[in-house]
Write a structure and sequence with these properties.
The complex is a heterodimer. By secondary structure, chain A is mainly α. Chain A is about 65% helix and about 5% strand. Chain A contains 12 helices and 2 strands; from the N terminus they run ααααααααββαααα. By secondary structure, chain B is an alpha+beta fold. Classes of the chains: A mainly alpha, B alpha+beta.
Amino acid sequence: MTENDRAILKVSELSSRAIPWSRTLDVLIIVVAAFLVWSVSHISFLLLGGDWDFFIDWKDRQYWILIIPITTIIMAASFQAIFWNLFRLPVGATASLLLLLLGTWIVRYHSWQGLAYFPLSLVVPGTCLMGALVLDAILVLSRSWLVTGMFGAVLYGLLFYPANWIYMAGYFQPVMNMGDMTSVADLIGYTFPRAGTPEYIRIIERGTLRTFGDTPTWVSAFFSAFVCIFLYYMFWGLGVLACNARFFPVGERFKLIYGNKGKAAGKAVGAAAAQPGAAS
Amino acid sequence: MSLHRMSLRRFGLSILLAAMTAATTLVSLPAAAHGERATEPYIRTRTVHWYDVTWSSEKIGVNDKVTVEGKFHLFTDWPDAASKPELAFLSNASPGAVMTRVESYINDMPAQQSVRQLEIGRDYPFKMVMAGRVPGRWHLHPVLNVHGAGPIVGPGHWVEVTGSAADYKLPVTTMTGEVIDDLQHYGVARVQWWQAGYALLAVAWIVWWIRRPLIVPRWNAIRKGREDLLITRTDDRVAAGLLVLVLVVVIGGYRYTTQKYEYVVPLQAGSFKTKPLPQVPSLVAVEMKDATYDVPGRSLRLDVEITNQSESPMRLGEFTTANLRFLDKSLDVAVAGVDPSFPKDLVAGSSLKLSDSSPIAPGEKRTLRIEATDAAWEIERLVSFLTNVDSRVGGMLFFFDAKGQRHMAEVFGPIVPVFTQLQLAQSH
């Protein structure tokens, strides 16, 4: 235990009896919170953006780059707000994306490969984990949700494409199939058939956005970054709403044991947590 | 009821719930079928009629090939409730990727992409070459996915794949010369290693924060205005270091990758157009006068007016709809038209019953009653056409001339259900 840890415990006025139990409570809450963050992040992503990341031959250069960051930042921002406002823990975004990635791989192995026989090369997922780390790091450095949204959310959207391109570029090498040029990703999608996923629903690219380097990729990445700013603020606000201390177990005995004596304490925390960027 | 009994009941219910959860999540098994009977009858009877479909083999080894080929006719009385085949994709239905698609063609044109502007009333030949991948007995259908109408499934045949799934390999060489040993594993390790690296950074970051006094102490510290204790100068340095590390890894990795893969292409998605088979002048004119479905008798009765416009006598040999085939078993040429590989469960056991089975003379106009009776109407879940919004039925009639040559004609029109038993009961 560091000097800083001792100082925190001293300030928190925990009774000597409660200190070891406090650590036990930490472990229990971490386990419960992990499942909560995991399930909410996963369900939210499945509902809003899942299809766009299921298959390697759906990872297109316009919509995949746009949709994945903006559908994952909403949970990242919400959990970041909750953990920050209640505990000044800058791990909400990272935890959300890390657990989403873990859950995604479990489903890929169990359901996609195990039950439907799809090869993993067809269903490798992308991730916004690097963007989430940046989001949390900027929150620590700035102590401000406003600054985090302005810079962190932009980097969150921008980093998705290059961070995933590092290991996915190989899938976009040209290859010949039945006399036509196609990409390795297309060939994988064609070879391992999905009865309910006809090819025509992949015809999505519209117009020309080839301003930068003859590809619309970076245009999509910048637009995604732009949208991420607004979604970050919106869902940070939602996270703050969820912090309302009225829903916490603040009975008299609980307060007594954990150093929160007096009814006013709980209300004060609730009011403080309800202020977006209370620590800014 | 005593408290003890209630607790026991709750305990029992909890155990049951836990067992059900475990059964559905841990012991879940793949489905062998894929809902081919679930599509509404109005789509199956009045959109795509598959015929002359054959399977080259019933048993193949892993990596061996099976060819499914035949023709499909796009029905003239295409239902209003389903989009016209302006954009379609030839695929196959099987339970997951148990077989891989090697080649597919519509009218000899490669069909790896979608086909546009198919013409209603016309016929198209198709061919699919599949390879065995996962051992087992699999139901293999051709499917035409029609944009706005959904998958329209052709007849399915059981194909047994033998051997070991571990033997399946699909080597590919890219146009840049990279040799891929096996497409089904390509790039997976690279993705996993990189993502594991990202995850390691994330875990390190989370552990950095949760290793210290956490929930209640931090909450209290905030309440008491001492949040300065919660994020230290060291935390700032770690966060700054993490930020720099992430940017260096991503930017450096991206630059390295773009140099390594100099030639990449975007996803290739699009459509092509192909011609139908040449139109054959219709030598038999068919007009439906009346159609009823005998619900308890499981019998479709059609009254049709047939005009033989050819110079040869004609006999009706087959009525087919929704992949079901009803044959006049007294006509050898019709029976011989069923390929040995065609699924037996889709050929009605009873013969097509005709009010007059004698040949229709050239130029003759005859009204025939056709009865197609079989339990397959129920088994194939086709009788729900009685509840469709437009209550119509359609199918193909196959006539045979004196030389045994086949002539096809569409038959379609409104249909009325006959609840015979109910009517009898009411009359009593």
